[in-house]
Amino acid sequence: MRERLLPLLVCAVVCLGFATGDSASATGPLVHHDPAATGELLPARDGSREVEDIVLGSDERVQVADTSLFPFSTIAFIELEDAAGEVFGSCTGTLIGPDALLTAGHCLWSRADGDWVAEHLRVVPGKDGDFEPFGAEYASDWWVPDQYALAGSAIWDWGVIKLPNDLLTLDTGWLGIAVASDSALEDPNFQPAIFGYPADKPLGTMWGAVRPAFVSVEPFKLLYDIDTAAGQSGSAIWSAGDGPLRGLVVGIHTQSGLFNNGSRIDAELLGDLLLGCSAMECTIDVVDMPGPEPPPPAGSLPFRSYGVAVARD
């Protein structure tokens, strides 16, 4: 069992303007259900975000020129809406199954208010300014670990968003998720990548970077010198290299400090994600790696994940 005794870390984004929703309970997964989600593709529209830079030294992020290309098609702009349907902020999510997105817990749950951050989540994969190449959908459910909702610890800062169907992912595909060993994460061919929707750049544009290696691989977190900003919370940490983990998600960007860092996906974290997806009846694409097998994926939708090809200097 993971010993959650690490010091609390400062979140990269604190989402503001919270709406009412289901309350936390001491047992069972904490799930928000949005009965207003119709499962229909939505027309494009603009949003707005709070801005808070988390850039280390000079900014090395580059803009993604064609967000409709895989794997960037799997990265989603998440608009946070209040009960009146007004957009008050945004985060980033990554498709990790035909109807599931990985994101940060603080994008979904307010530790300060003890309530859900937003009443509605509009999910826009591959958004590029006003251009939304695949359309958009409202999420039907979202989940955070009980430990995050009840204790408010940044050590548990992750969540899953469920789409009502696989209409979006028929075209976008998704990234598989894996529990990776220290040696695999420290392999020179790993090359960590983080891409998302920073609020210090033009609205709804995708930016990110690939680095030669992590600054540090720790038992429960990954440290890196990849620049981020508000709005990129929830971005997946994945491999852009030529190793066995190419294109696989191994962490979630959630926090900042001396170095930007995120939660490392280990067997327990993966088990939590599968528990949440089981409660919401969604599907996560778990890729088996050498060593102990992770729990089986929840749900029954067919998988449609692709090999990753990333061009970089």
Any key phrases for this structure?
disordered C terminus, 2 domains, 8-stranded antiparallel β-sheet, 313 residues, mainly beta
Quick structural gist:
This protein has 313 residues and is mainly beta. It contains four helices and 21 strands.
Contiguous helical run count = 4
* Count of the domains: 2
CATH architecture of the largest domain: Beta Barrel
Report the portion of residues in β strands.
Answer: 25-35%
- Give the structural class: mainly beta
Give me the oligomer status: single chain
As for the CATH topology of the largest domain, it is Thrombin, subunit H
What series of H and E elements makes up the topology?
EEEEEEEEEEEEHEHHEEEEEEEEH
Number of strands: 21
Helix content: under 10%
Q: Given the C-alpha coordinates, what overall shape results?
A: globular
**Separation, N- and C-terminal Cα atoms:** 41 Å
Write down the Rg.
17 Å
Reading off the top of the CATH hierarchy, the class of the largest domain is best stated as Mainly Beta
Poorly predicted ranges (pLDDT <50, ≥5 residues)?
Answer: 1-29, 47-57, 299-313
Largest sheet geometry: 9 strands, antiparallel
What is the mean predicted local confidence, pLDDT?
79
CATH superfamily of the largest domain: Trypsin-like serine proteases
